[in-house]
Amino acid sequence: MTAPKPSDLAFVPFVSVENMMKLVHRIGIEQMLRDLGDYIEDDFRRWELFDKTPRVASHSRDGVIELMPTSDGEVYGFKYVNGHPKNTREGLQTVTAFGLLATVDTGYPVMLSEMTVLTALRTAATSAMVAKHLAPKGARTMAMIGNGAQSEFQALAFKAICGVDRLRLYDLDRGATAKTIRNLQGFGFEMTSCDSPEDAMLGAEIITTCTADKQYATILTDNMIGSGVHINAIGGDCPGKTELHPDILKRSTVFVEYPAQTRIEGEIQQMPADFPVTEMWQVIGGTAPGRTDARQITLFDGVGFAIEDFSALRYVRSKLEETGLYQDLDMIADPDDPRDLFGMLQRSKV
Ligand code: NAD
Predict the structure, then answer these.
(1) What is the C-alpha to C-alpha distance for residues 311 and 257, in angstroms, rounded to an integer?
(2) 211 lines ligand 1 (CB under 6 A)
(3) CA 24 vs CA 36, 37, 109, 201, 296: distances in Å
(4) How many angstroms separate the alpha carbon of residue 147 from the centre of ligand 1?
(5) What domains does the chain contain, in order, with CATH numbers?
């Protein structure tokens, strides 16, 4: 990353929702998901370089607001994100987000971006990149339980990165499944709307759970899970909010992003503190085994980690110059004399 000139630093490139959507269309959503998967995988390979901390969460009755910071020693980033399962009943989204990158040399921000769309893309790219390492070889059929805002992104990432082209869809709300099927027409999927989660499991080699409910839910029970499948469980991502029966965890090899965060927020919050898990960065780097046996159940207990957001922001920043899809934001005060902030204020009087 070339260092910006001091004068450039007063204006912060801002990627609006409109420009993010244009970027996705310009690149093509499946290509962008593959690119994001590559950026995330590259950053998982240099995992040890990063500052890591469980996200800073502020819980309230109806949801959570979180800050997710990290740095690779050259660039610092954070995401602001909420999770409010009740929001959709009021016409609002469950998850919204924005994020920022700054250069550690000066501490000045170098990009501010919408991240509601980008979070859906990066979550899906992470899930599929992980499945590339863990899912049974040649898997083509995925069950998807929970067909809300994340679902189409998940489906497309699994197609672009893993070659999944058959979807078995189930949601408590049939309207959500109908919406997902409608949105995914023309992308080359064979799609089946299922009457129950059990029905959705039939023939599925990969199972994605992506539901939103602020409780210990049991979306999957042990008897529903056959040997050899890969489970991509991403809906349980804060304390008191899980999707799987603990018996499934006992039968599975569990893979996580950052154990210190996942033990608080993931499916494994239901298990003892020393429950064994494998860190994905080690599988990717070749220092820990992934799937070792065709009958093994692999489970990605994905909660979303700051490094994935950092990678996604890093990718968007790499496209700014070439696409011009940003606005300059007058966000950082820029006095002629850096010690005369008050003088700058006085001179702005009309
Ligand atoms: P959403 O509210 O748009 O969709 C959730 C869907 O789940 C809804 O259609 C709802 O009807 C369905 N649902 C709820 N309970 C169900 C049940 N028992 N069986 C079947 N379907 C059920 O939410 P979203 O934006 O798609 O997010 C889904 C979940 O993923 C949320 O919990 C969110 O916090 C989480 N999430 C995780 C990550 C991550 O990185 N792990 C990232 C983004 C979102």
Answers:
(1) 14
(2) yes
(3) 11, 14, 23, 31, 36
(4) 7
(5) 9-118+307-347 (3.30.1780.10), 130-304 (3.40.50.720)
Q: Are strands 11-15 and 109-114 parallel, antiparallel or unpaired?
A: parallel
Pick the closest to residue 208 from 98, 104, 126 (CA basis).
126
CA of 148 to the centre of ligand 1 (A): 6
**CB of 260 closer than 8 Å to CB of 54:** yes
Total Cβ atoms within 10 A of residue 317? 19
Of 192, 130, 194, 198, the C-alpha closest to 158 is 130
What would the two tokens of residue 134 be?
A: 């863990």
Percentage with pLDDT > 90 across the chain: 93
Give me the pLDDT at residue 216, please.
84
User: Which of 35, 43, 171, 237 is the catalytic position?
Assistant: 237
In this predicted model, which residue has the larger pLDDT, 212 or 243?
243
Answer whether residue 9 shows pLDDT above 70: yes
Question: Per residue in 290-348, pLDDT tens?
Answer: 999 999 999 999 999 999 999 999 999 999 999 999 999 999 999 999 999 999 999 99
- The average pLDDT across 167-189 equals 98
DSSP track, 71-121: E-SSEEEEEEEEE-GGGGGGT--S--EEEEEEETTT--EEEEEE-HHHHHH
Distance CA 89, CA 311 (A): 32
User: Tokens for 103?
Assistant: 């250069």
How high is the pLDDT of residue 6?
A: 52
Q: What is the pLDDT of residue 350?
A: 73
Q: Is 340 a catalytic residue?
A: no
Strands 216-220 and 206-209: unpaired
Alpha carbon of 56 to ligand 1 centroid (Å): 21
- Can you tell me the distance from the alpha carbon of 247 to that of 82, in angstroms, rounded to the nearest whole number? 30
What DSSP character marks residue 296?
P
Q: How far is CA 5 from the centre of its chain?
A: 32
What is the predicted pLDDT for the residue at 212? Answer: 86
Among 62, 66, 94, residue to substitute to test ligand 1 (most atoms within 8 Å of Cβ): 94
